[in-house]
Specification:
Shape: elongated
Distance between the termini: 68 Å
Number of helices: 21
Number of strands: 0
Structural class: mainly alpha
Helix content: over 70%
Radius of gyration: 26 Å
Largest sheet: none
Strand content: under 5%
């Protein structure tokens, strides 16, 4: 919030900077990036270092310039999503400085970006494989950019204005061709207004372009990212915050006192509403159980929502409900190997070993690397005193995951059991 205020204050009125910083601090769009330590924290770190870099940019002292460049390098190291951010420095000079005079200061940011582009490019294959593992689907081809771009930009704008449907899995974006046309037109207008603002060197053009540039990597048509994810727009929605601050400043500065009063009242109501929504969203991230309940409510068409809900039920001993939820996941995606495995695992917890085996084997037929299913098959064989068969399953699991200490320990235990028979 403080960095946003300091950066915006350099080229805008105090009220604009205050509103922008306040919105960034209280808006529920930021909850996922701040709360999700395992997946979202890199976005907040990258945003912090980039904002720090931009704040120090064009500093008159050599130390300030070095700190700016080092901060930018840290942002690049945190996330591949920071790769397009070097363009913002050029736009910054174009809008608020003198690009012809200061272009040399921009060059180092371009230079340090190049090795990171090469590095992250080498990881595209593994990134696509990771997305395939998460989605349990073989990915081929590209996103259709004529659909991807309008849906991404319009959804982020919608979530900023009306942050109701916040979820870990933003899926099912396509509902009708009427909606497609509306989102295409809205995005076209957004990009058109942005271009006009940049050409005329209007500050709002810079901040509208900020949103698109910070989303640059996620807007590529290759399958290395979801079309929409709240953590992606953590840095980007600062642009929405600043433009909102500009609009609010114009309203409350109106010579018509009635308009100004209404504007102030609307602003107060908006702050209260956003704070309330942020607290509610934060409570949904309080635990696994609360998160998956909220995710299923907003994304029932996503099989992972049902799979995760199945885990919630199983951990609370509600095994029948767990199997119902996992079965729903399979209905949505019949190739969902994790869901088959989890049904088998749930049956094992119920000690229904014969019912568990077909699901575990089905899981392995879809994903031969699912070593957990071999481990569960070993449990079933051991319960039936077939230690040799159990050892064979454990050895197959170890071939896939040779460093797992528990598997190694189980193998030794089974070898002793075989000798003692």
């Amino acid at each position: 919030m403080i960095l946003v205020w300091l950066i915006v204050r350099k080229h805008a009125r105090t009220l604009v900077a205050f509103v922008a910083g306040l919105l960034f601090a209280i808006h529920p769009l930021a909850v996922e990036s701040v709360t999700w330590i395992a997946g979202g924290v890199v976005y907040s770190y990258a945003a912090f270092f980039f904002l720090l870099s931009l704040y120090w940019y064009r500093n008159v002292s050599l130390v300030g310039r070095i700190l700016s460049l080092l901060s930018f390098i840290l942002a690049l190291g945190m996330s591949d999503k920071a790769l397009p951010l070097f363009i913002i420095f050029g736009l910054y000079e174009w809008m608020f400085g003198d690009l012809k005079k200061h272009w040399k200061q921009w060059v180092p940011y371009i230079v340090v970006t190049i090795p990171f582009v090469l590095f992250y490019t080498t990881r595209i294959g593994s990134r696509i494989s990771g997305v395939e593992d998460i989605t349990n689907q073989q990915i081929s081809g590209l996103y259709n950019p004529l659909l991807q771009l309008p849906f991404a930009i319009s959804w982020y704008a919608q979530l900023f204005v009306w942050p109701k449907h916040l979820t870990l899995y933003h899926v099912g974006l396509f509902h009708s061709w009427t909606e497609v046309v509306i989102r295409m037109v809205a995005t076209g207008v957004y990009l058109g207004v942005t271009l006009v603002g940049l050409v005329r060197k209007k500050s709002w053009g810079f901040w509208l372009a900020w949103v698109v540039l910070t989303l640059g990597v996620t807007l590529l048509p290759i399958h290395i990212a979801w079309i929409v994810a709240e953590r992606y727009v953590y840095l980007g929605f600062i642009g929405f915050c600043v433009v909102s601050g500009m609009l609010y400043d114009r309203i409350v500065s109106s010579k018509k006192w009635g308009v100004a009063v209404i504007g102030m009242c609307v602003g107060i109501i908006a702050v209260i509403a956003l704070c309330t929504r942020t607290m509610l969203r934060g409570s949904e991230w309080r635990s696994q159980d609360s998160l998956w309940v909220a995710t299923l409510r907003e994304s029932p068409e996503e099989p992972k929502s049902w799979n995760n809900m199945g885990d919630v039920y199983a951990r609370h001993g509600e095994y029948d409900k767990s199997i119902e939820a996992l079965t729903q996941a399979i209905k949505i995606n019949p190739q969902y190997a994790d869901a088959y495995h989890n049904i088998g695992n749930t049956y094992i917890q119920m000690k229904k070993y014969d019912e568990a085996m077909p699901y575990l084997k089905k899981s392995l037929s879809m994903n031969p690397n699912m070593w957990q299913s071999y481990q569960d098959l070993a449990v079933i064989a051991a319960e039936k005193k077939d230690y040799q068969q159990a050892l064979e399953y454990i050895e197959k699991a170890l071939k896939i995951n040779p460093t797992d200490a528990l598997l190694q320990q189980n193998a030794q235990t089974l070898q002793r059991a075989i000798r003692e028979q």
